[in-house]
Each structure stands twice: as C-alpha cells, then as structure tokens.
Amino acid sequence: MSRSDARAAAAALVPAPPIPRTAEAGSEPVFAEPWQAQAFALVLELQASGAFTWREWTEALAAEIAAAARAGEPDDGARYYEHWLAALERLAVRRGLADPEALAERRAAWADAYARTPHGQPVELERRP
C-alpha cells in the first residue's frame, strides 16, 4: 500500500463528529432550526453509507467557509449551517448524488412557499402531481 493510499484509508476511518448539544449534561441536540438538524443528519448518513469520506466532507465545508470569509462575511457562526448546506449541495452534485437543476428548482419552490406563507405559520411546499 502506498503512503497516499494509507493516508486516504486513515482519513476514511475518522469518527463522526459529536452531535452539538447544550452545556447541560445529557441535554438534547442544539439546532436553531429543524432544517439544520436535518442537514446535519443527512451528512452523517451519506458519509456512513460511503457516499463520501469525512476528508471530502471537511474539505467541502472548509471551502464554503473560506469563500464566505473572502467575501467579507463575519466569522460569528451565524451562517454556519447555511455553509453546511451549501457544502452538502456542492458535494452531492460533484459525487453525482444530486442534479444541479433539480436542486435549483427545489430551492426556488421553497423560496416561493416561504414568501407566500403568513408569519408564524409552517412553510409547506405544494404537492406536485
């Protein structure tokens, strides 16, 4: 086994990150919005199923955060899961797991649903035939 193959194999064995939790012992996972928990869980599931390695994931997420920093975004963590989602979308497209046009259509559908939903009501997509 070559040294680069050994490094790749070791990177693939890195354990999953811990689920974020509040400071209290035994507390529930912490996410500001339900979609953040869903995006987090999707990354864990895709990695566990072999869709990509942790190294690929961390590189994709780091690239999103670095791009935001270059664009002048403050590094205060407020948009962390937006970067997480963007990294997930880019990696899914790169690995052939998602179609970029389908993602764009879904994003537009959510934006439209959000715009027509009264404040305080759950946002729901219209069902397609």
Which characteristics define this entry?
129 residues; mainly alpha; 5 helices
Q: Quickly give the structural class.
A: mainly alpha
Proportion of strand residues: under 5%
Tally of helical runs: 5
Assign a percent range to the helix content.
55-70%
Please describe what this structure looks like.
The chain is mainly alpha-helical and 129 residues long. The protein has a domain at 45-117. It is 57% helix and 0% strand. The protein has 5 helices and no strands. The chain is globular, with a radius of gyration of 17 Å.
In short:
The chain has 129 residues and is mainly α. It has a domain at 45-117.
List the helices and strands and how they pair.
Elements: H1 3-12, H2 34-48, H3 54-70, H4 80-94, H5 100-115
Helix pairs in contact: 2-4, 3-4
